[in-house]
Amino acid sequence: MIRVLSVFGTRPEAIKMAPVVRRLQARPERFESLVCVSAQHREMLDQVLDVFALTADHDLAIMTPGQSPANVVARVLDLLPPLLRTVRPDVLLVQGDTMTTFAAAFAAYLERIPSCHVEAGLRTGNRYHPFPEEMNRVLTTRLADLHFAPTAMARDRLLAEGVPPDTVVLTGNTVIDALLATVSADHQFTTTALAGLDSRLRQVLVTTHRRESFGEPLKAICAAIGDLVARFPDIEVVLPVHPNPEVKRTVEAGLCDTPRVRLIEPVDYVEFVHLMARSYLILTDSGGVQEEAPSLGKPVLVLRDTTERPEGVEAGTAVVVGTDRERIVATASRLLTSTEAYERMATAVSPYGDGHASERIVSALEQRYG
Length: 370
Description:
- This protein is α/β, with parallel strands linked by helices and 370 residues long.
- It folds into two domains: 2-173 and 354-369, Rossmann fold (3-Layer(aba) Sandwich); 192-346, 3-Layer(aba) Sandwich (Rossmann fold), CATH 3.40.50.
- Helices cover 47% and strands 16% of the residues.
- It has 16 helices and 13 strands.
- The chain has helices at residues 11-25, 42-51, 69-87, 99-110, 133-143, 152-160, 174-182, 192-195, 216-231, 245-255, 269-278, 287-295, 310-315, 325-337, 339-346, 357-369, and strands at residues 2-8, 31-37, 58-59, 91-95, 115-118, 146-149, 168-170, 202-207, 235-240, 261-264, 281-284, 300-302, 318-320.
- The strands form two sheets. It has a seven-stranded parallel sheet, sandwiched between helices.
- Strand 11, helix 12 and strand 12 form a beta-alpha-beta unit.
- Helix 1 (11-25) crosses helix 7 (174-182), helix 3 (69-87) packs across helix 4 (99-110) and helix 14 crosses helix 15 (339-346).
- The longest helix has 19 residues, at 69-87.
- The chain starts with a strand and ends with a helix.
- 49% of the residues are buried.
């Protein structure tokens, strides 16, 4: 038996770890699968656990109002090591680039427990963009014993940094596993705000929450959205407002009275996946959405100056537009007016996987630790 402890704390982590945890649970003769949540984001995390019918065996419950990245790391490093000494897993799994990811990998290192990094090798090359995610990735790579690279480009970055080749496994991205297991053609929205979408309008989905966009960049994004709805009377913008107070304050001040801009509370994963599928165009600074949207045939405009997912840009599924108001409006306008430009992006092949990443990860764990 291989005892595996999966540690995560936010909604994106939970979505991408759920297929792996479920695959481990399907092999009870070989794996003892345990889940520990930090609850870095409480409500949004719990939504995903419910969707995938996952139960946390251990809950650190670290979330506090107005928490800083340093608060998250300090509380994880305070609460996780005693749990590790009690549970004593054979291996610890972390995912992605959150403060929980780095802190859990560091805690495992301090307890001399091997850790494995799901979605390893993503880089922008700029330690402050995205902040603090880029540094979390770099530090987690230095701490991890096994690296699950979602793309060939991510694998090659790890090898270029001197990571031993026999510790790097090319898997695909688990977010595609979760997406393909969730999306259905006959879904009916249950969220009131989504059930009322006007079918005569083209929906433009917008998500934004990055710390480096707080302040003027986020105001510019809101202004660009206002310009687009004024220019295109046949579109409706749907924007799930992230609960971070800085995001909420800026978005509501900039867009609450704008016609055909629907500001909604964050919806659960199933509703969000089908909102993406319903949308005509997606504007986002989310890494997960950059990966999911191409599998649904939706062009993506990346509301950031850099992306650690250049595979989508190279494949033609995404365009980096930053937070410049004029550039956002010009690029979105081209896709909203040119069928040729739109179809070129919508039909580009997704570079992020085939839906079998979790199988490859579990197989690698068995080979390495069995």
